[in-house]
């Protein structure tokens, strides 16, 4: 296959201290056929304007939404837009990535390489070689428990179901009905992998090192945990 076209989707909410550096680090990899799609939810800190500025220099498309509507719906909107591109500009590989440097841009080439043999690659903190830096014990426990819970309820063989650094072949997204998603928030990560698995795709995991954000505020809260708890049960029993 010729060099695959790669699109990296980055949802942003109040990431003014991170976005510029991240975009430059991604394009600094000098990968061919790479573009970024930023979905900004009218960030009060002006991240959307920074995105527009960056789009003047780099191959970036910015989707502006009028208010904060959740990570899951941000991805869904970006995926729908990508799938509606003219066929010659449709990306072959589509990444999900956080804006806050928790996901290391230097690991992007590892995903692309692994995509030769897989339909979808999950960046995993819980396989050999993966890890987490600077999370407190409580956050680690919640993540561990969330993974064990969803693995068990959904009968999935993957170690990291809640991570947000992952890559899909376009056909995987085409196979998933993006209008039937029940998750608005972070549970989206579990739901996409579950649906891809049910559709029979070959899903692989590679180790990543996740780093706690250095700048900006965490949006993680109890509502996110509760959404996942309930929605995983919904997924299991309603599909
Ligand atoms: N567009 C959009 N982006 C969001 C929303 N919520 C979170 N994000 C972005 O999604 C990515 C992941 O969110 P984070 O807040 O970093 O979530 P996290 O990594 O679980 O938690 P912290 O890093 O501790 O805050 C970041 O790039 C956020 O800016 C949202 O409602 N809309
Ligand atoms: Mg984060």
UniProtKB/TrEMBL annotation:
This entry carries the following GO cellular component terms, namely: membrane
InterPro entries from the entry?
Answer: DPM1-like, Glyco_trans_2-like, Nucleotide-diphossugar_trans
GO MF annotation list: dolichyl-phosphate beta-D-mannosyltransferase activity
Which UniProt keywords are listed?
Answer: Glycosyltransferase, Transferase
Glycosyltransferase 2-like domain location is 8-175
What Pfam family is a match, any one? Glycos_transf_2
Sorted alphabetically, the Gene Ontology BP terms of this entry are: glycolipid biosynthetic process
Signal peptide start-end: none
Q: Which PANTHER family match?
A: DOLICHOL-PHOSPHATE MANNOSYLTRANSFERASE SUBUNIT 1
What family is this protein classified in? Answer: Belongs to the glycosyltransferase 2 family.
Tell me what this protein is called. Glycosyltransferase 2-like domain-containing protein
């Amino acid at each position: 296959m010729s060099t695959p076209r790669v699109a990296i989707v980055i949802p942003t909410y109040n990431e003014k201290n991170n976005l510029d550096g991240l975009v430059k680090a991604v394009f600094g990899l000098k990968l061919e056929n790479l573009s970024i799609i930023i979905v900004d939810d009218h960030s009060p800190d002006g991240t959307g304007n920074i995105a527009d500025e960056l789009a003047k220099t780099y191959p970036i498309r910015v989707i502006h939404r009028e208010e904060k509507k959740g990570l899951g719906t941000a991805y869904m909107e970006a995926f729908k837009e990508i799938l509606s591109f003219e066929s010659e500009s449709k990306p072959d590989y589509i990444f999900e990535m956080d804006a806050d440097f928790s996901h290391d841009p230097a690991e992007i080439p590892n995903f692309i390489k692994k995509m030769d043999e897989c339909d979808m690659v999950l960046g995993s903190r819980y396989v050999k070689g993966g890890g987490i830096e600077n999370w407190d014990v409580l956050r680690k426990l919640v993540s561990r428990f969330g993974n064990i819970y969803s693995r068990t309820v959904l009968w999935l063989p993957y170690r990291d179901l809640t991570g947000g650094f992952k890559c899909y072949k376009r056909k995987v997204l085409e196979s998933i009905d993006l209008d039937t998603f029940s998750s608005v928030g972070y549970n989206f990560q579990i739901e996409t992998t579950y649906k891809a698995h049910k559709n029979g795709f070959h899903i692989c995991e590679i180790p990543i090192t996740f780093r706690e954000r250095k700048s900006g505020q965490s949006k993680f809260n109890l509502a996110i945990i509760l959404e996942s708890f309930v929605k995983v049960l919904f997924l299991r029993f309603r599909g």
